[in-house]
Amino acid sequence: MNALTATSRSFRNAARLLGLDSKLEMSLLIPFREIKVECTIPKDDGTLVSYVGFRVQHDNARGPMKGGIRYHPDVDPDEVNALAQLMTWKTAVADIPYGGAKGGIGCNPKELSMSELERLTRVFTQKIHDLIGIHTDVPAPDMGTNSQTMAWILDEYSKFYGHSPAVVTGKPIDLGGSLGRDAATGRGVVFATEALLTEYGKSIAGMSFVIQGFGNVGSWAAQLIHERGGKVVAVGDITGAIRNLNGIDIPDLFKHRNETGSLKGFHGGDDMELNELLVHECDVLIPCALGGVINRDNAADIKAKFIIEAANHPTDPEADEILSNKGVVILPDIYANAGGVTVSYFEWVQNIQGFMWEEEKVNKELQRYMQRAFKNIKEMCFTYNCNLRMGAFTLGVNRVARATLLRGWEA
Hints:
The chain is α/β, with parallel strands linked by helices.
């Protein structure tokens, strides 16, 4: 099941629990706007090449639309649609005043030089500048993009509208980026994990963790779990996987990865097959990479008691059912990885106010938002007698539906 089908299925289940009018349900599901543009640039050798860029603006009932821009060969309308819809529910779950959006360009950024990436980003911005804005749609980095990409978008957009730092988040600190933004998604994952484990009378200290993905989110999550006394027993990414049942020394692993560019060959653990990672013995499994990695083929073999969805849509609906029947507790993506968009909101606020926060305040506010959101999800679980995924979806969908009705929606 692809991401759009799975996301829409969860939405419809939540709408049914909430008893939404069928016309309102359809209105909430259909995107506000879908944008498709051609981006033609000269390559460094003088030849011309064209790429297709997308931006799906899903909903703006609760505020400006918000979502990342990814550069990846597999970017397509269905994927962007699904991620835009997820952002609508995610921002509502976190209770920040945004709607949802997502964008991307179908390209392989590893095959483009820095100057080619800059030209591509500027052309894309030129094509969509009148459809994004501080109070309209605020992009952010995603897979294949980074703070430098946001700096180019900010600069290109500002040529049309004057200096506008709040038009994107995830910017370099020197251009108005927020302290704590780089670690925000991983830190939010850890705050979410703490909230869930506390519910079961447990804590991170002494628990065993497997982390799939060692990019920005996975590496920060691993580091913060290690600092809190958690035992990371296995880690993997596209370069390989390693394990140590006594716990991996995460700072040492960082050093090895930075020196070699790979997790393989780490002296503080044993190499293992990547396909063994998700089914490795542990208390808590944290998928931090691509979607659909937990599916009906491997769900029955997963040994973790808790799954924290740090990636977007890592668990297929069929796997969700198998795991639920096994008693595995799954903390859903629209809550678990909301730390990034929450601190993006803080960055946007700082830019509008022209007053920047200390990192300690950013992290403290993030913890407060994540704890409050978990409490609200649990209340929905109690009200509707449902699991955490449906608790999060009913919370998000209900908030967007209420905002839509209050603004004067008519059937």
